[in-house]
Amino acid sequence: MAKKKSMLELHRLDVDDYKKLEKLPVTVVLDNVRSEMNVGSVFRTADAFLIERIVLCGITPQPPKPEIHKTALGAEDSVMWQYYASVVDAVEELKRDGYTVCSIEQVHDSVSLEEFAVEKGQKIAVVMGNEVKGVSQEVVDASDMCVEIPQHGTKHSLNISCCAAIVMWHVYTRLHP
């Protein structure tokens, strides 16, 4: 039977050492995400997969918040983040800075996540939408592309934190050395 690894065997970094690591050129944009717990979960996953930063937009809660901390387990301190009142302003700035902006949304002519090609050195911004409305149409229109996670059940959406984790893992597996 397999034995669980101890905390010592996991070689966990402290926040200062983590901040010194080279991050992937990936920014996660949260478009009016309401739940502090979803935001915290995105921080925790971003920490795990060396995401360079999270951009919180509109009504998205910002640290420090108790529920963000509860699910992030401190990753809100290790992962760089910024706030923009307007998600469109954030997207426009990312595009000016050379990022390919990809909204994760179910739209006509979307690219399946399975087909979503990411190349080393490419700067990617992935936009995750509101729990009810998804990514706003305005942001979809401003995006370079839309990526859709294939789903085959009776529901037509995933929780934003689950969606973000799937996308971050996909990008991580293509960009991490």
Summed up, the helix count is 7
Q: Could you give the count of β-strands?
A: 7
CA radius of gyration is 16 Å
Taken as a percent bin, the fraction of beta residues is 15-25%
What is the molecular shape? globular
Stretches where pLDDT falls below 50 for ≥5 residues? none
Which whole number gives the mean pLDDT? 97
Briefly note the structural class of the backbone: alpha/beta
Describe this structure in words.
It contains 7 helices and 7 strands. The chain has helices at residues 15-20, 36-48, 66-72, 75-78, 87-96, 137-142, 160-175, and strands at residues 24-31, 51-57, 80-84, 100-104, 111-112, 124-128, 145-148. It has a 7-stranded parallel sheet, sandwiched between helices. α2 links the parallel β1 and β2 (51-57). The mean pLDDT is 97.
Descriptive labels:
177 residues; 7 helices; alpha/beta
In short:
The protein has 177 residues and is of the alpha/beta class. The protein contains seven helices and seven strands; from the N terminus they run αβαβααβαβββαβα. It has a seven-stranded parallel sheet with strand order 3-2-1-6-4-7-5, sandwiched between helices.
Task: Give the SSE layout.
Elements: H1 15-20, E1 24-31, H2 36-48, E2 51-57, H3 66-72, H4 75-78, E3 80-84, H5 87-96, E4 100-104, E5 111-112, E6 124-128, H6 137-142, E7 145-148, H7 160-175
Helix pairs in contact: 2-3, 2-7
